[in-house]
Give the backbone structure.
Amino acid sequence: MKSPEFTILCELLDHGPDYVSGTALAHKLGMSRVGVWMHMEKLRSQGFEFEAVRNHGYRILRTPAELNSLMVHAYLKPRQQSVDLLWLTETDSTNAEAERQLAAARPTPFVVLAQQQSLGRGRFGRVWHSPGHGNLYASFVFRPRLEPARMTTFTLWMGASLCDLVANFCRIQPGLKWPNDLYFEGRKFGGMLTEARIDADQIRDLVFGLGLNVNPSPDALPESLARQATSLATCTGKPVDLNRLTAAIVGRVFSAYEQFVDGRHRDAFADLWNRYDLLRGKAVTLLHGTRRVNGIAGGIDDEGSLLIRGENGRPQRFSAGEVTLERA
Ligand code: BTN
């Protein structure tokens, strides 16, 4: 992406608090200073604020707090700047939009990002509450050409990688509740939903959906979620830079995906899983269909199944189900 607005933004971000002269920007873009000013007006209409000082030039005073495509592109690492990102102000579900894009033959990989969703979906057909103003709703679309059996640990690996990113980015200690929930201090701030189309012996395409509660205050949550959910801003006690976080997540998801497909993730996986596993050693209840199992969680096996040790002491494996933590 090399629009004049993007070039201006990168120049100003690169100079941090220093001014960049209108002449230098005009020279860089091969246009007049009036042309530069017109492109800066376009940036202003997206929520950017600049200071313009005679004989010094321009500098950034404020960047948009909302998800902004130019900001995310500017923060992406050079290697990732060519990633195909589809930006939507609103959609029903980024996973559903990803499916429509696949049906329309959009080349993979690509990412669908939306500021809000009207029908965000979660596991077991649940609704993922998806208001506007400051959350992340993203679907990453890949064609891994792997056998379906290889995919059993995919969401777990992505979740552990994302916990690691959040831990470093936000300086908190999140946890992963098998198989797809991101937690901090007993409350959920994120969820993952992986959906795949499978041909006879190969994954045809894979949609990895990620929803993160980032900046909205807890008051914005519906009553049904108020006691279970949280946001990263609440966890850290301050607003989180959504655009920088989104760029970091796009980078991490792509690199984690590549490691997974090559099989290079294996050594790191056990280590990351053990670091972020929220359940190990805890008393849990697993619901699987009409079955209910109580016991102590004991990590996962090589296929990513959850191990639960019941009263008889023998571990049982579960490849699916919903876990609740028993209160101590
Ligand atoms: C869960 O915890 O049940 C999974 C929630 C996944 C929500 C994300 S938001 C982006 C993507 N689009 C959807 O409709 N769902 C996923």
Residues 83 and 251 are 9 Å apart (CA to CA). The longest strand covers residues 187-198.
